[in-house]
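User: Second chain of the day. Same drill as before.
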Amino acid sequence: MLTDNKDKSPGMRIDIMTLFPDTMNAIMHESILGRAAKKGIIEINCVQIRDYTENKQCQVDDYPYGGGWGCVMMAQPLKSCLDNIMSTAQGKRSRVIYMSPQGKPYDQATARRLKNDYDHLVLVCGHYEGIDQRFIDECVDEELSMGDFVVTGGEIPAMAVTDAICRMVPGVLPEEECFTEESHWAGLLEYPQYSRPDEWHGRRVPDVLLSGHHENVAKWRKKESYKRTMLRRPDLWAQFDEKQLKTKSEKKVLTEAKAEAEAIRAAETEKAEETPTEE
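Assistant: Same format as last time:
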């Protein structure tokens, strides 16, 4: 358990069912989440599934019915582990989530939903060839996937889910703006960021960021956010509702962004056409 402050209930409690709790605790206890846990703002528990086996070998998996490669995690240790977790979560708004390549793709909207609708999440990390379907049918509320690829176990996806949710809990980051200005919050990608020095390898920081003119900086950032989304994620841009822009200033920024994005596309097309192709 990472929470050191027992005087108040955390804003979010996440229990991660895993075969590798020490490794996960070492990572989840660092940096921003580690400090928030010590303050009692969040609680992250990495629970060893093997502790709930009913045999001397601490066996958590067995061969699959019907044959095939690998082993499948058995339902009993998973259910016993979950039962123990839930016995300490009375009165909480809980949800059990299985990290699975067959689940719904995880995105920022899902992270916001889970953070807003629940104060207790149980993340189940599979391993080997997955887990017994009967446990999923009986105990799991939803399945989440990191994307169309497969990893060895659910631990890395579970840590990503935990981080994305916990950083939105009030008090974890200094200000709400720390995450509302980032990529995907409003369906847009974030604008470019720069730090010192003003010039590096002949590349200068845009003058507007050095001007001290806060309104112009805000307009530049919004325009760059539009451009990045148009050029890099046309699928996201297709969902952007331009009708939400009400003022002449907002519409002007969008018009400029579209013109600059089109100029970039044209330059890239011209460059591609000039590049000789191999016979």
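The longest strand covers residues 94-105.

User: Great, on to the next one.
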